[in-house]
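USER:
Working in pairs, take the chain set out below, taking as long as you need, and write a paragraph about the fold.
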Amino acid sequence: MAEISLKSLGKTYEEATIQTWFIEEGDSVEAGDDLVELLTEDGVVTIPSPATGVLAEVYYDEGEIVSKDELLCVIDEEDA
């Protein structure tokens, strides 16, 4: 399983607002596909999928604020 959080961005953000989900829960995703767009203190940031698999669970809806230590979503990775 790949867990995606604000920590995944490599830069420390205290919080971000979910702008757009490009993939819906239950849909397949390829590594590198745009996953979610966030509004941060630096502007808009797009998070690509770190893995190929299925977007298993989304924890925040568009418009909600997520804090730095919280998970955005989980991807069930395909077996190699």
